[in-house]
Amino acid sequence: QVQLVESGGGLAQAGGSLRLSCAASGRPFSTYVMSWFRQAPGKEREFVAAISRTGSSTYSVDSVKGRFTISRDNPKNTVYLQMNSLKPEDTAVYYCAAKVATTTLLLTPTRGYVYWGQGTQVTVSS
After folding, report:
1. Distance between CA atoms of residues 73 and 69, nearest Å
2. Which end of the chain, N or C, is less surrounded by CB atoms within 10 Å?
3. What are the b/e assignments for 69-107, b being 16+ CB within 10 Å?
4. Distance between CA atoms of 43 and 31, rounded to whole angstroms?
């Protein structure tokens, strides 16, 4: 069991930056693959990025590649999403998610997540 709490959302202008954080508590953080999803109004929740247990591998959706970077600090039990060059279409509630992994590889990064945070709102104005 792990509890996830996101922070860092807010209002940004197009072209600006935000950094989201997700603090985890409970089972050892390094046993989890971590990810970020987002859900825009009227749309289904979509995968954004994932990171392996050690942080050595990441995977992200094409629409954010080159703009968003996922990272983690295992001693601090925290995963981050650095968002640069923000666009209005990035407006959404962003969720942190976790799943237990028995390997340090990043397998099936877009699905299988069991634990979810409550979400943090990101709004990008044009």
Report:
1. 13
2. N
3. bbebebeebbbbbebeebeeebbbbbbbbbbebeeeebe
4. 31
